[in-house]
Amino acid sequence: MRKPDWHHYDVHGVLAVSSNKSILSPFFRTRELRRRPDLVVLLGDLRADQLEPSGDNDALRVIYRPRGLLRSEVLLKGLTSGGQTRLFIVNPAHRLLGRLSRKVRTLIRTVFYIKLLQKWHALLHSACVEKDGAGLLLVAPPETGKTLTTLKLVLGHGFRFMSDDMTIVGPDATVLANPGTLTIHPYHLRACGIRLRGRELLDMRVRHLLRRLPYVIFLVKEFKLSFKRFFSEDQLTRRAKATVMCFLEAGPRYIGELDADEALRRLMAAGRMHMSVYENELIQEYAYRNPKFDLEGLMDRLKQLCQQLVESTSCWHVRCPDKRFDELIVKRVWPAI
């Protein structure tokens, strides 16, 4: 196998990652790392000796298909400690088509999630914006209106963008930017006055129509655009102190403060959305074979980080039938901080 072209990522100085493929947001890309990477991800038609655990107990090699065009293997090594972790993958979708399968992407995200927790940081299913140094977290299930509310707060109310779907949270209610792609629907354009280029507009409309058909939704991906398509450098910020959390929900118009116990319950539920740590068979097998890998202890860290968020912020329950959460937030929540 030829020498890989490395992609290096510096995730706010918390986590250093190297891979031969693009696996994280370009926001974290750096030409070189100033320290040893915490996570190395290598995909390709790897040799057998590259996938050998070499007798190391802190390693797991899984062979799905040992030979042929559909050869598929995984080596996960060094996940027990907070040191360097290596994830080597032979996957037919990548070998034959040059793309990452959904299963591979999920595995990479899961290992990235665990590495962040080992550094006392976590990915939280939420959007985040900032104004005057204060961070506002928007917590909600998918399709509730996080993206629309984020766009309106940044483009119409002077907030700055940090993340749209997954926010990195750290100790003492610190929130770190995690910008990537935004899922865009026609109502986003109408509500925010956004104009797309001709090809972009056609692509969005076609995907939106096809995904309305039965079963086609599983074959056609949602239309996404980079955060750079909507926000300038002046509209971005990297770090803030979380001050307010708004838990969004569809329903009759209502806004009120949440008590700490209810806010923590909702936050923990949101914290595990889109994250398949407990459902990932390879991670579970790794934990089974390596008694030093304290997966439950790492999840306790998530709870502690969420507890710090609840204790450091004012928590609001915001309900709206038409996704106009930004109006309630700007009029009722933000002036109260």
Structure description:
The structure is a single chain. This protein has helices spanning 92-97, 102-118, 146-157, 186-192, 198-210, 260-271, 281-289, 295-312, 325-333, and strands at 7-11, 15-19, 29-30, 39-43, 59-65, 72-77, 85-90, 122-131, 134-139, 160-163, 166-170, 174-176, 181-183, 224-226, 239-250, 254-257, 314-320. It folds into two domains: 7-118, no CATH class; 122-192 and 223-273 and 291-336, P-loop containing nucleotide triphosphate hydrolases (Rossmann fold, 3-Layer(aba) Sandwich), CATH 3.40.50. Strand 5 and strand 6 (72-77) form a beta hairpin. Helix 6 (260-271) crosses helix 8 (295-312). The termini are far apart. The model has no long low-confidence stretch (mean pLDDT 90). It is built from nine helices and 17 strands. It has a seven-stranded mixed beta sheet. Strands 8-9-15-12-11 form a five-stranded mixed barrel, surrounded by five helices. A two-stranded antiparallel sheet has the order 13-14. With 337 residues, the chain is an alpha+beta fold. The radius of gyration is 21 Å and the shape is globular. Helices cover 31% and strands 28% of the residues. The longest helix is centred in the C-terminal third of the chain and has 18 residues, at 295-312.
Supply database-style keywords.
globular; alpha+beta; 2 domains; 31% helix; 28% strand; single chain; 337 residues; Rossmann fold; 5-stranded mixed β-barrel
Number of strands: 17
Strand composition percent: 25-35%
Q: Could you name the CATH homologous superfamily of the largest domain?
A: P-loop containing nucleotide triphosphate hydrolases
Radius of gyration: 21 Å
Distance between the termini: 57 Å
The DSSP helix count reads: 9
Major sheet strand order: 3-1-2-4-7-6-5
Stretches where pLDDT falls below 50 for ≥5 residues?
Answer: none
* Structural category: alpha+beta
Question: Mind describing the biggest β-sheet?
Answer: 7 strands, mixed
Q: What's the CATH class of the largest domain, please?
A: Alpha Beta
Oligomeric state, counting identical vs distinct chains:
single chain
**Could you say what the CATH topology of the largest domain is called?**
Rossmann fold
Supply the CATH architecture of the largest domain.
3-Layer(aba) Sandwich
The share of residues in helices is 25-40%
Q: Describe the global form.
A: globular
Order of helices and strands: EEEEEEEHHEEHEEEEHHEEEHHHEH
Number of separate structural domains: 2
Query: Overall pLDDT, averaged?
Result: 90
